[in-house]
Predict the 3D structure of the following.
Amino acid sequence: MISNFLKIALRNLRNNKTFSLINILGLTIGTASCLYIFLYVQDHKSYDTHHTHVDNLYRIISDLYLPNEQEDMHMSTCSPPIPIGMKQDFPEVVEAARLCSPPGVEQNLIRVGDRVLYEKKGYYVDSTFFRVLDYHFVAGDPQHALDEPYSVVVSQSLAHKLFPNDNAIGNSIGIGGGGEEEEFKITGVFDDAFGKSHLMPEFFMTMNSGGIGEYIRGNTSWAGNNFIYGYVRLKPGTDPRTLEEKLPAFLTAHGAEQFEQLGMRKILKLQPVKDIHTTLGLTADFPTNTSERFLHILLLIAGFIQLVACINFMNLTTARSAHRAQEVGVRKVVGAPRWAMATQFLGESLLLTLFAMAFAIPLLQLMMPFINTLTGADVELQVNGRLMTMMAGLIVFTGVVAGSYPAFYLSSFKPLAVLRGFSTSKGSQSAAWLRKGMVVSQFAISIALVLSALIIRFQLDYIRNKDLGFEKHQKIVFPFRTAESQEGVERFRNQLMQLPEVSSASAMAVYPGQSVYNDLPAYKEGQDMNTATDLRFTYVDENYLKTLKIGLIAGREFVPGDTSTVRGEGKAIINEMALKRLGIAPEDAPGQILYSEFEDQRIKIHLVGVMQDFLYQDLSTEMDPFMVLFDQIGDLSHVIADVQTTNYTEFFRKAEDLWSGIVPDVPFEYSFLDDDIAKMYAAEQVLSKIISAFTLIAILISCLGLFGLSAFTAEQRTKEIGIRKVLGATTSGIVGLLSRDFLKLVIIAIFIASPIAYFVMQKWLAEFAYRIDIEWWIFGLAGLVAVAIAFLTVSFQSVKAALSNPVKSLRSE
């Protein structure tokens, strides 16, 4: 029986080459797209799943509730004593470890003998770190690799780069960045290709060192200083929610006085480590994280694309049902039961899907480098049990979905009716209505994707062109990544300003587009910490406003004499939002003093000016109270130059000559400020590219189906067209006649897709504090695109039919 079914299926495919080709092509493209999306999502879901105790690993995150703040802060970090304190106080905690990302450090300078290079930044971690999280060591003991002071564990790729002909273990390297350069001994090497993690730096330095490591180990702040990433491993069977309920009392026991002094409240939560990579929205989290909602959107798109391909199969199969009617009638007359007929047609669908999968795999392998470039991923097509299961599931799902209705519909034909020639009965009318409904569904999906792609593109254009409150174009950023090189910041800035291409240059600790981690609760005279307003801040020189062209509203800019010689005092320029929160009029701000308290010290901030609000971080967050503090230029780590030239090659040659004369032992590097700001929206750029690409695929598959249906319609109406031409019908009239019905369906699809796309994209836009309004003309534009594509697709067959010789069409009559 199976052999007979297979012969019939292959013969049917061979006898209907055009429609079989359309079905296989649509299913192949859809299946390849689905497979890639599944692999892409699986790749992101696989982060941190390789840890031995992954189900018991958690990161400690903090919710901060500050006085006078309109929004609470949800942070991926906690205070330094918290992880160690939890291990000491709770028997449920087997092990704890802290990790510190040095603030303001993007890359570290590595020195080996006379060689100096920049590497992706490393982290300071407790010696217990590798007893919490697993990294595959190829050399050294992970349990004790970081026990010794000034020890470091490096990745295998970095070890080969530093010591290509030698064993890295036991060798010493200089590491600079954020402080004085220190010498560390390599005590371990891990395989950076083993298991993806939210933490994949080039090296881990022991916290048992000087500098920031020493500061963290001696820190006793339970309320403030939330800059530590804390990890705990719980005993198997421990309920993390039960442990969370004990944490408020834990904080009160250790830091009640500090919380009262700062007038703040903190709630600690435990976040599963395996969920970190797919969680967004936490302050100070890792920029490589992706959104779980984004992954769900991709899976939804994959489902839509495959559904569009399945609809093609159902439409074309039921449309050509008359060609199979006689076969069904004869087989039923000779005793074939309905279930056997349904199995036959379902088997043909599965066979077609199997062919599509056979073509989809090499197509995906061929296109993988291009798609990975588009998505910024490194997905690989590796044949393993998971991939085989995924392919088998997709074949069965697609085959059953695509073949279920044709199998039900074709097997329902009455043998007497079809053998007498009455196959176009009531059931045929129902099938025709269903086909129209499926065409509407196809184009509704495609139009919704077109609308989404357009709105995302317009939002990104809005971000790119929005007035940020400062000038980002033709600004060159020069980073000074070591404490030694920062001693040359002032000389480099001053010499840059002597170049004819440079109109101004400024030194600063953090430049717009970078995360600002420093904050300070401040209050006016006569108030206290209970009414303090939290101010984000960074340190700058006297040229900051001039170089970035930030408007001064009141008071004055900084002058070199503003540097304070008294500890705990400084001079600041504050933004409009901060004044509004503090309740100070702009004209009254210059000369006022703000106060803050920390560890029995009263801090005094003298306001010298008011600057206009500007977006120093990304557009997903509302404007925050912000100030810049004047600092000695030797403590600043970036120089931005306002460059007016068209010959950047010559300018960079001059700048590098200046650099070499001031900091010869540090590699020269630079970036454009507008490029750095654009990188903040890399995830949105990827989303835009992915949706645009898969929208084109959905439209292509929909057009394939429409092409097949229009060809079938033209074939059915061949004699009608011949009669109309004999009676004087024009080519344009016939094209309009054949196209009209399909275009009506596309217009209906526009009205269905528009409100759905509007609702979904409003949800997406809500993640941005500054966003576009969805205008009516966007829907009109998407509708015109859909109608134009549909008309071009249908008109090809319509024109072909209209230009045919009517004599040939009517000869059989």
